[in-house]
Specification:
The protein is built from five helices and no strands. It is an all-alpha fold. The model has no long low-confidence stretch (mean pLDDT 93).
């Protein structure tokens, strides 16, 4: 599986692991609501990166990266609520925020690279 060699995939897996760890600190009623949704969104990022990479088709790969980017936007949005309501300390999300910025840049540059490849072919 070549996607396991991708830095972008490893970064996305790290984000998922941090989110999973963080959501265990949520209040019990939020673990099954917001926590569950946040875990699913964070899992979707590396899953879509992997699936897109495995398709072997550039257009499909780009589409899966768009889905990964959308899931990343969900994570960014959903991390704000527990900070706002003090379910977690804002300092606990510094790593998540940084990873989200980096992943967004990586996803966007990968999409641009693949689009360029499409134009050339």
């Amino acid at each position: 599986m070549e996607f396991k060699n991708l830095i972008i995939w490893h970064e996305a897996v790290e984000l998922k692991e941090i989110v999973y760890s963080l959501t265990h600190k949520f209040l019990s009623f939020e673990k099954f609501g917001l926590g569950s949704q946040l875990r699913r969104a964070s899992l979707s990022v590396p899953s879509n990166i992997a699936e897109g990479s495995a398709t072997g088709d550039t257009k499909e790969h780009i589409q899966f990266l768009y889905q990964a980017r959308g899931s990343l936007a969900e994570v960014i949005t959903q991390v704000e609520l527990p900070k706002k309501f003090a379910y977690i300390d804002a300092s606990e999300t510094v790593k998540i925020d940084g990873l989200c910025v980096e992943l967004s840049k990586m996803i966007n540059s990968t999409i641009a690279s693949l689009m360029s490849k499409l134009v050339r072919s």
